[in-house]
């Protein structure tokens, strides 16, 4: 793992989350282009149009390349074969940041451990941020080599500094042939369109997308969505995800094929018109493709999502998507025009938050550093979801609080500080599930950054004693504040509310695994080798002996994730990740816990402690569980559903079998199948060892 620079070290600390200085003016956007881009406002005379028309070529480009990066987790696809051919076969706007500035924290009174983010000093005009490449864009022209030197150049006059072998004329011709074949031959094979679905089936896929796709921050405005006026690339991205939820035969294969089409169309479109990366439909389609790629079970799409993540963040940052939007036209004083302007600004803000979430989530999903800095976010938190889902202008207006203006929003940086600042916590009461989710994602990202600092080669030699362990404990305590017990989840009747709380609580439990020292660094190495990595196996034994309380806490949080995924499945794209990591950690714990000594079992302790039981805080079972976590005991019988006695000889295989069973029930996303294959290999290795 690479060590971070000094600036990056301080950027990742929680003390970095500071309000912006007074006098800050968010950057405005003014892209001069015939294509409707993120800066365009809806016409006051018309109703809100979800997206402008975007002309995406219907054929694939011949001269584009695939810039996929290898991803650390792509080994889970080692048993999946790839098919080179693609066939459809029978299958208000935000307030400015300084308005929310905390007067108790003046710019000149910033603590030594904190500093303002670089985004504070951005140019107001986004175009000025690309000053290194200022100048007119040359018109498109056929690619041709310019003449290099004169027609006759004496080889001897050029000289030779090194005694190297010289190219022969045959070598030169071979290079020429390589260039011509690589750039003139079609990059992809032709696509068979014979079985492309009917419009009724495509409509069905789009409909199921809006019913089943439940992101914590919704960024596609369903009430004004019109597939006839939406760019084709976005319609296809939506349909590919919606197809995952159909019960039609061949749905999974069709969805992945359609996602691959979106990937190729995206590469082709950018090669033909680089300005397409400045448009909202393109960024939205890429975000959907990125999430799909991580969860589809397709190796090509999986690796593409990682490279896509960095480019998506870069494009969004370059056009100011993480800064407040300023309307470029006056808004008429009527409900319809105000609704249209609000949708335009809110959709843009939500897209920025969705990209931030997509990037930050890799910290606890893939154990990787996010691309963007938290300091880049100058947005307020999203508006009420009910207003976002209002089906008409008057329905929207009826939901506008009478006590406030249309642009009354919560500043993100102030909200993040309220997690640790008791004075701010009194004035800012976070209740919106969207806001809670974004705060949890941010705290999880900070937790990973602290973990990264601990792995730095300088941590044990620098003169300063940074309290990193204390920082991790504080972050985990703050995260626990937003967790919901299993007993409470069972009492929630509203599916939308339950889905949000289930996802948030699962993320928090997974964060405890990342907070358990270097558990999530050596555990994937063990899984990758079916438990045969000697260095990782030795580290596992040492890790288990270092802190028995930590070991039992990992058992508890893993069991909680297993229970949540078993009892409250919502077919979320990231659910397989949670189960896989929790099950693997439980297998590790079962290997390290001592087997209960039955001859020493006392009468009061004969009742087993179930770590995944829906216990209410304060009841007898809950108190016994807390006592076991803190004190342990050789005579305690601890288990979960499917694993009666953790620490017994058979508990390791039982933990894997229960994890496999839960993953097999997650049938919407094929990533669960890839995880099952990995665990089966580990199970076979365990059986052979027994």
From TrEMBL:
The keyword GTP-binding does not apply. It is found in: Nucleus. GO terms for biological process: DNA-templated transcription. GO terms for cellular component: chromatin; nucleus. GO terms for molecular function: DNA-binding transcription factor activity, RNA polymerase II-specific; RNA polymerase II cis-regulatory region sequence-specific DNA binding; zinc ion binding. It comes from the Eukaryota. Residues 19-54 are annotated as: Disordered. Residues 25-46 have a biased composition (Polar residues). Transmembrane segments: none annotated. Residues 206-399 form the Xylanolytic transcriptional activator regulatory domain. Pfam families: Fungal_trans (PF04082). InterPro entries: VerF-like, XnlR_reg_dom. Keywords: Metal-binding, Nucleus, Repeat, Zinc, Zinc-finger. This is Xylanolytic transcriptional activator regulatory domain-containing protein. It comes from Cladophialophora bantiana (strain ATCC 10958 / CBS 173.52 / CDC B-1940 / NIH 8579). The lineage of its organism: Eukaryota, Fungi, Dikarya, Ascomycota, Pezizomycotina.
